[in-house]
Amino acid sequence: MDLEKSEPRRLYQVWRGSNKFLFGGRLIFGPDVGSLFLSTFLIAGPVLAFCIKILFIIKHCLRAKQNALPWYPILIVAVVLTMLDIFFLFLTSSRDPGIVPRNSKPPESDETIEINTPSMEWVNGRTPHLKLPRTKDVLVNGHTIKVKFCDTCLLYRPPRASHCSICNNCVQRFDHHCPWVGQCIGIRNYRFFYMFISTSTILCLYVFVVSWYITFHRKGGVWKAMSADILSDVLIVYCFIAVWFVGGLTVFHFYLISTNQTTYENFRYRYDKKENPYHKGMIKNFKEVFFSRIPPSMNDFRAFVEEEEVMVMEPTDHNYMGGNTHSSKEKIDIEMGTKFGEESGLMLPDILRNLEYDDIEENMKYRQENEINDSEQCIGPIDQESEGPDSSFEENTEERNSFTVEAKTNSEELNDTVVSEQTTSSVQS
């Protein structure tokens, strides 16, 4: 009976990262997407209270037959800023930040370096006999940049890329993983992230200033107005605290953009002692971030994958650092490689792998038994010394000594023969 053919699966269904997808892979979020709802509430909640406050003021002006026209633009601006803020938040969170596709196997042999360097390491697991350098040099704008090999994605990371431990992906121009957005910030969403934090800063300042204006223009003094208008007091305190957070981020990222750095590079002091190869001047740096074309995604998450690719995408256990037990021979294979003798001309690993320790242990046991027999024979003549003459004691002593010498000589000859035979067979193989 023929086995039923499994239904084709899309890339997002077998994706090995920690991302979460919506609408059939059209939207991609980070694993902590729940923080997106918290951020939306922290933005929309205070603004909703502010808009209700403005509506009450408009209603009061209409009842008192006063001019309420200036309050309408204030309400409209607050609504527009809030919609823009949430829109940029959604664009930042639901967009591919620039994920580098994983490799199903390590780079080909022509991409590896064939010389022995301290950075050489054996890639255990899938390819136990493939030697790869941990880093390699790449030329960027006339500067030599070292790129690292990612053991998870099985690739050399592009310049400025890094592996996010939360999303479990390598991201181009990795800036950081934002917990408030629930997504990595990379080359494809950094522009929207900066627009999000800058819009949040403007919105906080706007609500703060208008709330202060309402409080100051109440009759009866400031303290009396503050005690009578609790909502404005709460908005003032909330916006004062929030503006330090989002405002500080806006200023910090303004500095990063003007110097063409990422948060990851800045925190690691990458360019404190050497020149930044990506710095093009302040104006060109801003053009690169805000007016350059956003590169297309390197992953088509809705594309169907072949059955072999599905097997590759299935999670595998990578015990590179431990957790699995190896025999002594397997450890030698991992550390020395099976082609060690061919590359270096030394046959030591082969000798170690083919050496049989059982014969040596038997020889050691045989020698110990001979020594025990010798000691027992020494005790017998001493006990018989009182019964027999001195001549019989001397004869027994000579026989015992000659037997011990012959036994040691035979044991040494046997050990030399075993070792020489094993060494000869190893060299011939």
TrEMBL record:
Keywords: Acyltransferase, Membrane, Transferase, Transmembrane, Transmembrane helix. Residues 384-397 have a biased composition (Acidic residues). It catalyses: L-cysteinyl-[protein] + hexadecanoyl-CoA = S-hexadecanoyl-L-cysteinyl-[protein] + CoA. It is a multi-pass membrane protein. GO terms for cellular component: endomembrane system. This is S-acyltransferase. Residues 146-268 form the Palmitoyltransferase DHHC domain. GO terms for molecular function: protein-cysteine S-palmitoyltransferase activity. InterPro entries: Palmitoyltrfase_DHHC, PFA4/ZDH16/20/ERF2-like. The lineage of its organism: Eukaryota, Viridiplantae, Streptophyta, Embryophyta, Tracheophyta. The keyword Acyltransferase applies. Residues 417-429 have a biased composition (Low complexity). It is an enzyme of class 2 (transferase). The DHHC domain is required for palmitoyltransferase activity.
